Amino acid sequence: MPHDALDWTPPPAGPEQPAQVRRILRLFHPYRGRLAMVVLLVAASSLVAVASPFLLREILDVAIPQGRTGLLSLLALGMIATAVVSNVFGVLQTLISTTVGQRVMHDLRTAVYDRLQGMPLAFFTRTRTGEVQSRIANDIGGMQATVTSTATSLVSNLTSVVATVVAMVALDWRLTAVSLLLLPLFVWIGHRVGDERRKITSQRQRQMAAMSAMVTESLSVSGILLGRTMGRADSLTKAFAAESERLVDLEVRTNMAGRWRMSTIGIVMAAMPALVYWAAGIALKTGGPGISLGTLVAFVSLQQGLFRPTVGLLSTGVQMQTSVALFSRIFEYLDLPREITEPAQPVRLEKIRGDVRFEGVCFSYDATDVTDATDSAGAALSGIDLDVPAGSSLAVVGPTGSGKSTLGYLVARLYDVTSGRVLIDGVDVRDLDFDTLARAVGVVSQETYLFHASVADNLRFAKPDATDEEIRAAAEAAQIHDHIAALPDGYDTVVGERGYRFSGGEKQRLAIARTILRDPPVLIMDEATSALDTRTEHAVQQAIDTLSAGRTTITIAHRLSTVRHADQIVVLDRGRVAERGTHGELLADDGHYAALVRRDAHLTVKV
């Protein structure tokens, strides 16, 4: 497993901005047909809108001076019709463009979620949950305005600017030249403002991710319990206030970035009609060609119409540069390498017996640490050869950090071996399709996770189509049915955040019931009773015995009392097999296992 996937930090800024823009545009490729319709509607709307000043000129220069009432009525109706048509086209293009934008956001959210689902466990152990949530919620959410409206605004404003400029030239090219003198300066200012906001946006999103992570950690049930029992509630509030204060500063900087420069553009654009009137007056005074009142009013109307799309184009440019920062953060996750992948031609097993074999298995959390069975420096596991026949039980014991849990996780392919093979029914688990592997292996760990949902929904997570009778049978086998039935809402009882309405033993039995419902032929029990008191452990152990019957069971044991009857016991020490045999054989050898038994007995007596 590559080291960078485990010790992951966000990469540098990434590819140059043009490459990022091209990548962003590719997101819209599946919807190019709808976007083409948007372009046509926008173009039609813009062309219809610029016809209105010409109708106004005819009203002022012809219809009113000549008293032609019929023509006046027709021209007035034309101006009303252009407004109606333009606005209808505008509503239609907004509907289509918003739909396309939301589909692109949906695609991004789904792609990021799917990518994260394929990441190894090590990624999540080294990445704060709030950071992951922030990428999906804040970063993608922050792009909503850009994704849903930028393409439309760009086409609409560009078409309007071009159509308006052409119309202005048709009215009077000299006034048009005066009106466009400062346009290059406006474009330069807009680019500078966008670049400034893009840099601040990157800082703001990182700060939002930090706040999200803090909220997720400190306002979870575990976080509240820890904060209150340690008397740190006030300290956590002060720490959150400090994070929020930093966000306030960044939000103000984001909104004020280039605000004065953009206001300057607004002031100049608003003053342009006065400049046009002045230029027309000077031309008339100096004996130049006269400009009719209708032409002058129509030109100023067009010029005022030019102001909105020009500022809109500049604002769109600023928004696009700002959004590049958000897209970059999303692309960082989309570019993470998948460590656990399905083979090109996966093997699917219809009937799974449950034979498990480890052949020369080595594993390291840094793949450069170990390359073969003889190189154990820094390896979590090294040179593991084990055979667990179908229906038999293997107990794995050893001191903390000896690689017990890692061994079990390799069977479920939560990690991939660095070298060697883990086989189920003679097939390398890396060659199995994900569905077969999920059907083959069930894991019950010490840390039971329950969703904030009903008991029935938590159990059905293992088998969505399970009937009420199947759920009840699984709960009875796990010896938790009577407790559930005694609850006010029975199986409809909501378990609460991470299942805190239930005790540790009850949660374990719910997890066992969930696994019974799935009915896997291979079972990994990862220290499922180590955190329980003796009485609760006995009840859970009975449920485990029911679950293990007829299955291949690999038990990661902390309390040795739970593994005495295993078909074989393996003692791991520093990632290697130190001893193997039955309980009686290992006691007779008086080695590592016997020492662990004596220590366990001493601790039990002491308690």
Mean pLDDT: 77
Task: Give the strand order of the largest sheet, numbering strands 1, 2, ... along the chain.
Answer: 6-7-8-3-9-10
Q: Which outline best applies?
A: elongated
Helix content: 55-70%
User: Could you name the ranges where pLDDT drops below 50 across 5 or more consecutive residues?
Assistant: 1-15, 368-376
Radius of gyration: 35 Å
Task: Count every beta strand, where a strand is a DSSP E run of 2 or more residues.
Answer: 10
Largest sheet: 6 strands, mixed
Structural classification: alpha/beta
CA(first)-CA(last) distance = 42 Å
Strand content: 5-15%
Oligomer: single chain
Helices, by number, come to: 22
List the helices and strands and how they pair.
Layout: H1 3-6, H2 17-27, H3 32-63, H4 69-117, H5 121-125, H6 129-142, H7 144-171, H8 173-179, H9 183-218, H10 221-229, H11 233-256, H12 259-285, H13 293-334, E1 356-363, E2 381-388, E3 393-397, H14 404-411, E4 419-424, E5 427-428, H15 434-440, E6 441-445, H16 455-460, H17 468-477, H18 481-485, H19 504-518, E7 522-526, H20 534-548, E8 552-556, E9 568-573, E10 576-581, H21 583-589, H22 592-606
Parallel strand pairs: 3-8, 3-9, 6-7, 7-8
Antiparallel strand pairs: 1-2, 1-4, 4-5, 9-10
What does this 3D model show about the protein?
The chain is α/β, with parallel strands linked by helices and 607 residues long. The chain has 22 helices and 10 strands. The strands form 2 sheets. A 6-stranded mixed β-sheet has the order 6-7-8-3-9-10, with helices on both faces. Strands 2-1-4-5 form a 4-stranded antiparallel β-sheet, covered by helices on one side. Helix 20 links the parallel strand 7 and strand 8. Helix 6 packs antiparallel against helix 13 (293-334). The longest helix has 49 residues, at 69-117. The radius of gyration is 35 Å and the shape is elongated. It starts with a helix and ends with a helix. Residues 1-15 and 368-376 have low confidence and may be disordered. Residues 356-599 form the ABC transporter domain. Residues 36-322 form the ABC transmembrane type-1 domain. It comes from Streptomyces luteosporeus. The chain crosses the membrane at residues 35-57, 69-96, 161-187, 260-280. GO terms for molecular function: ATP binding.
